[in-house]
Amino acid sequence: MPSSEFDLIYRYFSSLGAGPAVDLSVGDDCAILRLESNERLATSVDTMVEGVHFPENIFPEDTGFRAVSVAASDLAAMGARPIGMTVALTLPEADEFWINTFSQGIAQAVSAYDLPLVGGDTTRGPLTITVQVMGALPMDKAMLREGAQVGDIVYVSGTLGDAAGALAFLNGEWQPEPDAAEYLLDRFHRPRAQIELGSELLGNATSAIDISDGLLADAGHIASASGVCIELESAALPLSAALESNGNSDTVLKWAISGGDDYELCFTLPKGVSVPEGCTRIGQVVAGEGVKLDQNVDFETGYQHF
Amino acid sequence: MPSSEFDLIYRYFSSLGAGPAVDLSVGDDCAILRLESNERLATSVDTMVEGVHFPENIFPEDTGFRAVSVAASDLAAMGARPIGMTVALTLPEADEFWINTFSQGIAQAVSAYDLPLVGGDTTRGPLTITVQVMGALPMDKAMLREGAQVGDIVYVSGTLGDAAGALAFLNGEWQPEPDAAEYLLDRFHRPRAQIELGSELLGNATSAIDISDGLLADAGHIASASGVCIELESAALPLSAALESNGNSDTVLKWAISGGDDYELCFTLPKGVSVPEGCTRIGQVVAGEGVKLDQNVDFETGYQHF
Q1: Contacts of B49 in chain A (CB under 8 A)
Q2: Which of A80, A138, A248, B60 is deepest in the core (most CB within 10 A)?
Q3: DSSP H stretches of helix in chain A
Q4: Which domains does chain B have, with CATH numbers?
Q5: Which chain A residue is nearest to residue B4, measuring alpha carbons?
């Protein structure tokens, strides 16, 4: 890419790189980050491809915010404290309006998650955004998928299925009222990584995962990694009024259990442990394998069964 | 991407994730890496797009090895000890032959650089490879671009221009003898990140950079970051016999000073400091700015002036 384009991009992004753990930010061969002496590094990478992971006509500000949120959600699921990220951006052309608005979405996420942008790469090609997040974990703690125990209670944060309801609306499958439509689109375009909840759960939850593939699929990852069965109750699933306004309870249930992209946390707590605000009990951990909904259906993974 | 494709990719990559600093590898929401208590994290990300950063008909094994080498070269330029990497792979289709041979190239690089593959993401789309490398640096040391001092001597490792000579051959611009062609193609397809040299220079070199954009451009980054002028002598530039076999000394000089992709290290040492094996003195640091070749030409950046 010509250096004038690098200059343009550098201008928009270079102010986002400062943070308490950042010794050296964008501009040299590597960025340098500092962990406390009793901490470890948690890291995860997510790629979003235009036309595959987000529609082509999405507002670039939302694309930027969402790309960071999706990656940061993996830090939340481990209970890690954000310390920095890199963004590798492949762009078909250096469109100043696009770069400007995209960078505003990145900046909002940097601020929302205290996640400074410490490095990146910009290349020419079909629009692809790869975000790698880095966080700090205490030396002796991490929330993994593998710790769920028989007898634990299963919880989920927030409400389920909103992003799937928004996608169905965007695809012309239903027409919510304006207020509901606005709420659902915000949930799809602006998912919030549950960083604070993850931090609160660290040391208490026996397992956790963020819901990116859908509740059944992701609860299935916990079941499989922990060697247990997860029983879920459909009547207990937290639903937004906007989603329920659809009126068709089968459709709404399908969105809630198999729709991805909500980026809420699903986690297990031992009985008697106090439950963080905004979280709902949706089931329990029993002996066996896989995920059961209402005790009569076996789901290996969510999506393929609908 | 359907889960059967994930299974395929997981099978090829899952054995590459173990290392002394790896507490948790591929398979959960994040990977977990451990630094020593007196160390900091150095990290860098590089994206390669098919048709832009490598030809479409390149052997997938070379693509994999080269993608890691290009990223690892940034660790070498900082003097960092490799601890792990992630590979975000966007693929047009799950071609088992491609994935198999690509993963062999990745595996060779994992082994060459002691750089375990601890995480990744696989998405559907035009072929794009993003490698993020992570390394450890002592708390009180790093080789930056900004430390060159007037009076320092400028060195480069290996030989220069070989990758540019190989590209010219691939583009049909000249026809080296078979042995020379083989040597040059290996230099282009299989660049070696100078990890050991970087480690040896850490604490001795006043500045360093890896040569990815060409000697003049990259020496220019040192000059600019350090606020000095770098004087280079064309007669001193180390050239391989294979490159010199081209016979046209102007062409060879152009490749050596402005060809990118050699991934050798350019660095500055104070006078009197012993020079690592395989490195050549190519110039000196003087007061001023920019890069001068043979004291009579001013170069802001290399590439645009040819």
Answers
A1: 90, 123-125
A2: A80
A3: 3-13, 60-78, 96-113, 162-170, 178-189, 195-201, 215-226, 241-244, 249-258
A4: 3-138 (3.30.1330.10), 153-305 (3.90.650.10)
A5: A304
